[in-house]
Amino acid sequence: MKLTDYRLAKQAPDEMFLAPGQVHEHCQALYEWLQAQPADRLTQKRAEADLAFRRVGITFAVYGDDAGTERLIPFDMIPRVISAAEWARLETGLKQRVRALNHFLHDVYHDHEIIHAGVIPAAQVFGNAQYRPEMQGIALPGRVYCHVAGIDIVRAAAPDGGAPQFYVLEDNLRVPSGVSYMLENRKVMMRLFPDAFAGINVAPVAHYPDRLLENLRASAPAGIDSPTIVVMTPGMYNSAYFEHAFLAQQMGVELVEGQDLFVDDETVYMRTTRGRRRVDVIYRRVDDDYLDPLAFRPESTLGVPGLLSAYRAGRVSLANAIGTGIADDKSIYPYVPEMIRFYLGEEPVLQNVPTYQCRDPESLAYVLANLASLVVKEVHGAGGYGMLIGPTSTRDEIEQFAQRLRATPAAYIAQPTLALSTSPTYVESGVAPRHIDLRPYVLCGREISVVPGGLTRVALREGSLVVNSSQGGGTKDTWVLQEALPKER
Amino acid sequence: MLSRTADHLFWMARYIERAENTARILDVNVQRSLLPQPLATIEAGWLGTLEMFELMPAFEKQHGSASSDAVLQFMIRDRTNPSSIVSCIYAARENARAVRGSLTTEVFETHNLTWLEIQRLLDERLPERDPGQFFDWVKFRSHLSRGVTIGTMLRDEALHFTRLGTFLERADNTARLLDVRFHGSRTAALSTARDDYYHWAAVLRSCSAFEIYRKAYSDVITPERVAELLILRSDMPRSLCASIDEVCTNLDLVGDERARETRRQAGLLRAELKYGRIEDILEGGLHAWLTVFLARVAALGLRIANDFLLPIEADLQVQSQ
């Protein structure tokens, strides 16, 4: 596979090449290995990878398609590489950010210090649909709210023309998904290309389920030494079902649906072949709204009636906690750097993307005047739906979007269109640059930890900036390099 | 283990076993339809098969005459027919997918691959080109899933409920297979001694029992002995006696006080098969006896569901437990 005729994208920084023909130092080993691979070997391996994913059944359901339609998320075999030094900085920044967000959640549901101090307007918090008054004053074990956080990171040229740097695009503190791809991508890569790993020090990620289990055990209600833990899924037609089953299996705990659980005397039980069995910790992959039909959406059949009361009584732990959405909402996002300063007294290591809040009339005017160069997102949107990417939209699309924006400005934020970094990606015509992002998974327990790696998503269509799997995105293995180990003592 | 998990395991096993036995039953009929005979006889044979599957109304809605092609297409590749082979394999795989955390990776991948493969085989029109080869493929996928289950799963409840599903389904299916003759006998007047031989030989082959018959009896094939072999012989792995014996064994492994009556009913059935005589069974007519047997197996299935799995009727009652 020759990368010699690889042509860099205009403007966007590339993860492997500093300039045409000039490889980043930390990518040199991978570059040489790729160069040495015969093209037909990669083609054959690609077919093997496809088969491996299908056989394991790592498929996802696409909403809107026929029920049960399953697709593979395209897997790109060329890994994305992060140097040890860059990772060290990312790791510090991620831990700092999640620590602050967790502080914020505790504060929002207890003393409201950050609001009294005037850092965040009260209306932004208490008027937000993501705020859960039911959580006010509830003490959680270890004060942990976001046991698992997925922080979306992009690398892009600085808007002022400075050197490319990492930006936090958004925080995912509700039920972030995708970690199974991080693990399975690595497994498949190691099976297909053991020789590549032999020569390059790639930090392992396979201990993630172990860390998660440890954190879930630690989050059990006080006084329970050997908690019964379950993973709760909306069911097998959920797009992330594979991941739910995978994590349950890897941790050796039951995978339950709402119908398997019931609450009696503020205690949660599961129905087993030998009668009821108490449940202490629920790693739930069901949104707040559907958790308990008595407390939230009454029509929900995915939840467990009475779960909230058991939770409030401290008889069961939920991971993540109820109400974490208030901290990852796009209208709260612009305040995260301030949170870090307020709670930790530190300067943020990772930057936010400059954000215009359209509810502010001045910002709205600016956004309307500059739609063609901005990205506009729904405050409560996710999955790449309902957004406008100015530079790639037609005049009509922009005009239609402007009407929606004028009608409900508070529902939108806008950001400059970032030239997301590209990574060499296997495409029909050979290898070409495609835009990527990164979602590392931050685990919050007694300590905050990050497994060295994450899910790299890649926008497979040329020029596209949307990496979501629902919009034609693929994934790559993410290689965090370790400092070379000393060869001999 | 979760009741819902046990339920999925039970049905996963039942569906793959059903796919296998459906292939076996269709195979008998394809073979029989190849003998020189009037078209009406062939059609009667197929109608008998459909009756045995209790699928006449569904079939008639879609098709006119019961030609070999129409019945095979309905029973093999029709996704609207929940008993077709492709539907059974899909259901087995979906049940496996729902509890993949409770299965070994190999068990799940076997069911998943069976589902992926059958889609390819149907696209390639294997059942039309070579039905025998297709039926063999189904049988071997079922053998494989059973083997992988026994060879890799922990000897715990998950395995016992899976096995329970296999043998309850097998008891049902073997009984139906034996009954084919009687459903098809609307035109029994046309049958001759030669037809008889070919019918019973085909039944034996479909249970992989032709060689066993010869070995056990060293004699010509008679309906009485075929019935004895497939109903009462405990050493014949697809017989009713052997199947019910396994049902009892696995029930005892998972059963507790709550399942006492279920175990009693199953034990009673086992005793009747173990100590029964073929003359007594045939006295009142094989068809009548098989009809009662099928009803008892169905009742057993209902009891198992209510004791351990997702209750079939008492859904509301569970909400308040």
Précis, in short:
The complex is a heterodimer of chains A (489) and B (321). Chain A is of the alpha+beta class.
Any key phrases for this structure?
heterodimer, A: 489 residues, alpha+beta, Rossmann fold, Dna Ligase, domain 1, 3 domains, five-stranded mixed sheet, 14 helices, 29% helix, 24% strand, globular, B: 321 residues, mainly alpha, 17 helices, disordered C terminus
Can you walk me through this structure?
Chain A is α+β, with helices and mostly antiparallel strands. Chain A folds into three domains: 17-221 and 316-350 and 418-480, no CATH class; 222-315, 3-Layer(aba) Sandwich (Rossmann fold), CATH 3.40.50; 354-416, Dna Ligase, domain 1, CATH 3.30.1490.270. Chain A has helices at 28-36, 39-56, 84-108, 113-116, 122-126, 179-192, 194-199, 208-218, 241-251, 307-312, 325-328, 336-344, 361-369, 395-407; strands at residues 17-19, 22-23, 59-61, 70-72, 75-82, 148-156, 165-172, 229-232, 254-256, 261-264, 267-272, 275-278, 281-284, 317-319, 351-352, 356-357, 374-378, 388-389, 412-416, 422-427, 430-439, 441-444, 448-450, 455-459, 473-480. In chain A, the strands form seven sheets. Chain A has a five-stranded mixed beta sheet with strand order 5-25-24-21-20. Chain A has a five-stranded mixed beta sheet with strand order 15-7-6-22-23. A four-stranded parallel beta sheet of chain A has the order 9-8-13-14, covered by helices on one side. In chain A, helix 3 packs across helix 12. Chain B has helices at residues 3-33, 39-52, 56-62, 68-76, 85-98, 105-123, 126-129, 131-152, 157-183, 193-206, 210-217, 223-231, 240-254, 260-275, 278-283, 286-307, 315-319. The two termini of chain B are 17 Å apart. At the A-B interface, helix 2, helix 9, strand 9 and strand 11 of A face helix 1, helix 5 and helix 6 of B.
